[in-house]
Amino acid sequence: MHLHILGICGTFMGSLAILARELGYNVTGSDANVYPPMSTQLEEQGIEITQGFSPEQLEPVPDLVIVGNAMSRGNPAVEAVLNKGIPYTSGPQWLSEHVLKDRWVMAVSGTHGKTTTTSMLAQILDYAKMAPGFLVGGVPENFGISARLGETPFFVIEADEYDSAFFDKRSKFVHYRPRTLIMNNLEFDHADIFPDLAAIQRQFHHLVRTVPSEGLIVSADCQSLNGVLEQGCWTPTQMIKAHSGKEGWSTRMLREDGSRFKVLLDGEKVAEVNWSLSGQHNVANAVAAIAAARHVGVTPEIAAQALAEFRNVKRRMELRGEVDGVKVYDDFAHHPTAINTTLEGAKAQLALDPHLQEGEGRILAVIEPRSNTMRLGTLQSQLIDCTQYADEAFWYQPPGLDWNLGAVVANAPVPSELVGDLEHLIVRLVEASRPGDRIVVMSNGGFGGIHQKLLDALAVKS
């Protein structure tokens, strides 16, 4: 059977393509923006990708077209599918019917940390010899691939609240019907499809309604998620609290940067994690993964051992290279909260670096506000303070941004620059950097290949 995927290079659709290929389907696809790591992964799987959306790609006619949620009416390929009467479906619907049916689905939802937490949970189950299937919106370093079918009933999936397709405006995650659900956090995002936070909470409540009464919900103890649960919950819920108490999950830091911490359940220590990651956000992600894994029989002690071997997802504070003591990192952060927590973790880790002398080492933040929400400017007021943990910030004004970043730069808490040309941005970063610095590049796109270009320019300087 021939499946053709429109929008195949998205992190979700690319992962779905791999699962379909593993099931034995003939898989092809197309996209307008093709860049690593998903494009590289698909090429390695032998999946043919067409650049663009010309109707000719639908000859010979595929048996089924899976339509990505980035596709809209007016797209030439979409119009051809409709006019020719070619069978079509959404990615989440296909996944529900062909992969998740009859599986123990463990879904990870939330505004932030979904990809990392999903990868942690898959790593824990894999370490415990439970051979799970998984679909991650990125490429976990422990597996080197973003999806696999697995060998047992357990399937770990990143549960995105974005809509399913132009013909199905429900959130993707309502198709998944999890038995174990993580809700990491909840903030306003996706301003292109949601008018306000209440609209997102409504979708999260639709998800909560699908979890069986014999299942488990692991939820952060925050106002937005508490509001979701207050709308009705029929499933046992375990809360993750910011401070230790007699009920629920919590942590106690053993190192300030979060690289070592105790895990507490109902006030009692159940595990200790000593790992390579840092930042309070990653600590919270880890506790959620530990709690979810416990639901399927993995002890917190075993989960902590698994996390000691955890390697983060590509594009999550991924070290791309080092030249003359300057390290260049790639991070997917594209929401003000994610930018802030990423920089906070980087700053805490830098402060404990034993190789740096006093006064050495700075965080240079490089930000491309590229997401649909950022392009609309809905959260621009929150962007002003999100660089507080950086020493300097460089903002890139990408083509198509509907508002000017000038006010953000002018009112920033740290020295900041606004740059509209990529080559000039690289020049400024080379001029500003010095040995011991960490340049953290944050974007949810390819950013014009800035990482390698910057490393090359630093090499010339040295």
Helix and strand layout, with pairings?
Layout: E1 2-6, H1 11-22, E2 26-31, H2 38-44, E3 48-51, E4 64-67, H3 76-84, E5 88-90, H4 91-100, E6 104-109, H5 114-127, E7 133-135, E8 147-148, E9 154-158, E10 163-165, E11 168-171, E12 180-183, H6 197-209, E13 216-220, H7 223-230, E14 237-240, E15 249-253, E16 260-265, E17 268-274, H8 280-295, H9 300-308, E18 318-323, E19 326-331, H10 336-351, E20 363-367, H11 372-376, H12 380-383, E21 392-396, H13 406-410, E22 416-419, H14 422-432, E23 438-442, H15 450-461
Parallel strand pairs: 1-2, 1-4, 2-3, 4-5, 6-9, 6-12, 7-9, 12-13, 13-14, 19-23, 20-21, 20-23, 21-22
Antiparallel strand pairs: 7-8, 10-11, 15-16, 16-17, 18-19
Can you give keywords for this protein?
462 residues; alpha/beta; Rossmann fold; UDP-N-acetylmuramoyl-L-alanine:D-glutamate ligase; Protein-Tyrosine Phosphatase, Chain A; 3 domains; 7-stranded mixed beta sheet; 6-stranded mixed beta sheet; 33% helix; ligase; ATP binding; EC 6.3.2.45; nucleotide-binding; peptidoglycan synthesis
Biggest sheet record: 7 strands, mixed
Question: What's the mean pLDDT score?
Answer: 91
What is the third-level CATH name, the topology of the largest domain?
A: UDP-N-acetylmuramoyl-L-alanine:D-glutamate ligase
Shape designation: globular
Radius of gyration: 22 Å
Uncertain residue segments: none
Number of helices: 15
Derived from helix and strand composition plus strand pairing, the structural class reads alpha/beta
Domains (count):
3
InterPro entries: Mpl, Mur-like_cat_sf, Mur_ligase_C, Mur_ligase_C_dom_sf, Mur_ligase_cen, Mur_ligase_N, MurCDEF_pg_biosynth
Binding site for ATP: 110-116
Family: Belongs to the MurCDEF family. Mpl subfamily.
EC number: 6.3.2.45
